[in-house]
Amino acid sequence: MMIYRFGQFALNPELRVLYRGSEPVVLPRKCLETLVLLIRHREQIMSKDELMATLWPDTAVEEANLTQNVSTLRKALGDDPKQHRYIARASGRGYSFVATVAEVQGPGLPSSKAGSRWPRTRLYRYLSTGALALLLISASVLWATWHRNAVRSSVEPAFDNPSRF
């Protein structure tokens, strides 16, 4: 497994996790994909068209989507667009990753414990939300069934005795 280290950051492209020190940095999936692309092609300027075609291969998107991804990445990295410590913009041409990157083979992440815990929390959040939704739906169905039966049982005795009418 290849890990990219730059500045105080470590990027695991396979798990799509970026670390600042030993803490995971939460970024949208497309922002992480943008970062991976820029780092893998750090020796060159990636054109905006090339980036957009790779990031959104089957979708027509505006250049603003790419600009937003880069802006989000710069914020997360603490990069200033005027200083270009990590991501430089080649006016009218595209973007380039300009920081020195060390490629580390293996599990060289700051904390394997943090790395294994972070991706699971999102999965657990989705699963627990789904379980809660299922519980609420089940409770609603049970209540509706009980309520219908309660109403039916309170009305049926009046029809059992025709002499009352």
Describe this entry's structure for a reader.
The protein has 165 residues and is of the alpha+beta class. The chain is built from four helices and eight strands. It has helices spanning 29-40, 48-55, 63-77, 112-160, and strands at residues 2-6, 9-12, 17-20, 23-25, 46-47, 87-90, 94-97, 102-105. A five-stranded antiparallel sheet has the order 4-3-2-1-8, with helices on both faces. Strand 1 (2-6) and strand 2 (9-12) form a beta hairpin. Helix 1 crosses helix 3. The longest helix is centred in the last third of the chain and has 49 residues, at 112-160. It is elongated and about 95 Å long.
Task: Label this structure with key terms.
single chain, 165 residues, alpha+beta, three-stranded antiparallel β-sheet, 18% strand, elongated
Compose a concise summary of this entry.
With 165 residues, this protein is of the alpha+beta class.
Helix content: 40-55%
Q: Sum up the overall morphology in one term.
A: elongated
Cα Rg: 27 Å
- Compute the number of strand runs: 8
| Number of contiguous helices | 4
